[in-house]
Amino acid sequence: MLYVRRDRKDDRMIKLITPPGMLLTVALLVIYSVYAFLIGSIEESWPLLIGGIVAVIASYGTAMLRPWSRYLVYALAIGFIGKLGLSILGAIRAGYFNFQFGTSWEVLQSLTPSLLMTLLSCVCCALVFRHFQGRQHLADQLCASEYVSREQFQDQRPE
Questions:
Q1: How much is the mean pLDDT over the chain?
Q2: What is the pLDDT of residue 122?
Q3: Is residue 3 within 8 Å of residue 131, measured between CB atoms?
Q4: Rounded distance, CA 101 to CA 4, Å?
Q5: What number of CA atoms fall less than 13 Å from residue 116's CA on the CB side?
Q6: What three-state secondary structure class fits 66?
Q7: Which helix (H) or strand (E) holds 88?
Q8: Could you give the CA distance from residue 63 to residue 139 in angstroms, rounded to a whole number?
């Protein structure tokens, strides 16, 4: 679903704006990039710094509704989930959860924020996929015209 903002001065339709689902994805990418730069600089980790750069590029592409940005969003989500999985596996092997927590419930509670971020990453991938799936992006089709009337927008919208 794409949104159009109405120009208040002359009642014409202006170019498309970023849909809310894509804005959620951009917000998550910005948060991830800040986190990656912060932790990457503290730990002097080149993979995290590179991930931060990729997240900045992906956030720009997603905000501007560029179809190529979906692949960066997918790659970042896979990287985040993979890194989280390796961290949890390392903690299990080291006995961290047995030492730090008494019950499985406490372990699950400690992992809740990470699991919610994983779920949010998957939701963002689904939003990006749904927005760009199997069709020419509407913004690319309409970008040649400065203004788009409601009738033109309705006629060019995919079913």
A1: 80
A2: 93
A3: no
A4: 51
A5: 6
A6: coil
A7: helix 69-94
A8: 12
What does the alpha-carbon distance between residue 11 and residue 6 come to, in Å, rounded to a whole number? 6
Nearest of 155, 123, 159, 129 to residue 141 by alpha carbon: 155
Q: Report CA-CA distances (Å) from 13 to 21, 81, 157, 158.
A: 21, 41, 15, 18
The CA distance from 27 to 54, in Å, is 14
Q: Tell me the pLDDT tens digit for each residue of 44-88.
A: 989 889 999 999 999 999 988 888 999 999 999 999 899 899 989
Q: What is the pLDDT of residue 23?
A: 87
CA nearest to 23, candidates 57, 53, 56, 59 = 59
The DSSP letter of residue 146 is S
